[in-house]
């Protein structure tokens, strides 16, 4: 399936797990021991959530509405397949 997909994670969550923003594995499925219940997965069962738009990826982690409410864009780093906020 060709196209661009986005994966968003909050940097605080990444830091809490001791993961690195420069490691591409950070943007894959979360480790099983930290996975809670989700819409499409059960606790401990990894599922990667991808979006076809940046806006949807941010909505999935609750960041888009926070940005619009505060009207402050923090440092955004973008690659072909992932983004994150500080």
Task: Give a short overview.
The chain is of the alpha+beta class and 86 residues long. The chain is built from three helices and three strands; from the N terminus they run E-H-H-H-E-E.
Question: Could you characterize what this model shows?
Answer:
There is one protein chain. This protein has one domain (8-85). The protein is globular. It has a three-stranded mixed β-sheet with strand order 1-3-2. With 86 residues, it is α+β, with helices and mostly antiparallel strands. It is built from three helices and three strands, in the order E-H-H-H-E-E. Strand 2 (76-78) and strand 3 form a beta hairpin.
Compute the gyration radius: what is it?
13 Å
Mean pLDDT: 72
The fraction of residues assigned to DSSP E strands is: 5-15%
What is the SS-derived class?
alpha+beta
Query: In which range does the helix fraction lie?
Result: 10-25%
* Widest sheet, order of strands: 1-3-2
Shape: globular
Q: Spans of 5+ residues with little confidence (pLDDT < 50)?
A: 69-86
Protein name: RES domain-containing protein
InterPro entries: RES_dom
Domain RES: 31-68
Q: Descriptors for this entry?
A:
single chain, 86 residues, alpha+beta, 3-stranded mixed sheet, 3 helices, globular, disordered C terminus
Give me the secondary-structure topology.
Elements: E1 8-10, H1 11-16, H2 54-60, H3 63-70, E2 76-78, E3 83-85
Parallel strand pairs: 1-3
Antiparallel strand pairs: 2-3
